[in-house]
Amino acid sequence: MRGCFGFFMFIIVTIWLLFGFLVFTAVRSWAFDRNFYNSIVDNDALYNAFREEGLPQFLAELEVNGQRVLDPTSTAFPALVEAMQGVLTTDYLRTTTVGLVDNLFAFFENPSSGLTLNIDLAPIKIALAGAQGDAFVRTYVRALQPCTTTINFSSNQLPTCLPQGVTQEQAIAAVTDYKNTWVSEMPVTWDLTESNRADFSGLPNISLVQWVNNAYSVMTIITIVVWFFNALIGGQGLKGLLMWLGGMLFLPALIILLTGAAFGGNVLDTIANDVVRQGASASLDVSPRVQESFTLVILDALRRVSNGFLSTGAIALGVSLVLYLMGGIMRRPNRQTLNIDYYNDPSYPIKPL
Questions:
Q1: How many CB atoms lie within 10 A of CB 257?
Q2: Which pTM does this prediction carry?
Q3: Are 246 and 33 in contact (CB under 8 A)?
Q4: Measured between alpha carbons, how far is residue 248 from residues 2, 137, 174 in Å?
Q5: For the chain, the helix, strand and coil percentages under 3-state DSSP, each to the nearest 5
Q6: Cα 337 to the chain's mean position, in Å?
Q7: What is the DSSP letter of 32?
Q8: Model confidence over 200-233: pLDDT tens digits?
Q9: Could you read off the pLDDT of 224-265 as tens digits, one per residue?
Q10: Alpha carbon of 53 to those of 47, 50, 97, 186: distances in Å?
Q11: How many Cα neighbours within 13 Å face the side chain of 279?
């Protein structure tokens, strides 16, 4: 009777509680781990792909005051790309991305303060205002071809050719003025959330990370109590208790382990081919190399997530087997009952040991 009641309790309550606890454990291992996100964005291949292919596409579509900065078909366009590649180094892009991760975790620590994603533009301003900017101007002007038609030379936009009667020194001065004006108007910090800032002031002034840790502690206590209570109901003695503890944990642990193994194998390959790559091609208007690099970053993140499930499932499965085997090798309690008068009756000379 106790076994039946324990089994029904396991099916209705305990198995779902154990499964939820293991999922919580697997997700918690990476969801609020700053190093997890920093390791994902520490990908030089993505930044190099952006600098070499994504940046030219970005500059080709860049507009200032409603006007395109430079026609990508211009002979001087490569000079602009080269100058910006010198400013937007791989280290700068990596540092900027890590800074965004820090902004995100600052929000996790105090959600009521709001989410602010800042990009530090000071290194770009300093580089363009200094020697790198001057070198860009000279390289850019030297790359200009003579204009084939009469064009009014203006310092309000970058020239696409060198007008007749304008010397290179005059062009350098005009482009320098344009560059200095553009740099002076550039903010020191670019707030990505400024135009779509949500109001988080109504949220409690509590660390989201601490709240999750507290919730995990409470769930751990509840899970252990229910798990142990279910084993007490279903099993008899220490042997039954251990075997029930191990047996109940086995199935949820196996599911978590297989989930992690699947995402680390064929399922991940399917996601890569059918979901991530197709989604990146459809939603990202960038070059194939940038798309592929971005896809590899996502797949690397999924592998790390699967490792969290894999390690959690493996540990839980190991605990399950150890508990079950410990109970299995224990001897059953001796339930033999003896009549005390049997030993005292002289008519039975042979007594069992």
A1: 21
A2: 0.71
A3: no
A4: 15, 72, 78
A5: 70, 5, 25
A6: 64
A7: T
A8: 666 667 788 888 899 999 999 999 999 999 999 9
A9: 999 999 999 988 888 889 999 999 999 999 999 998 887 766
A10: 10, 5, 19, 24
A11: 12
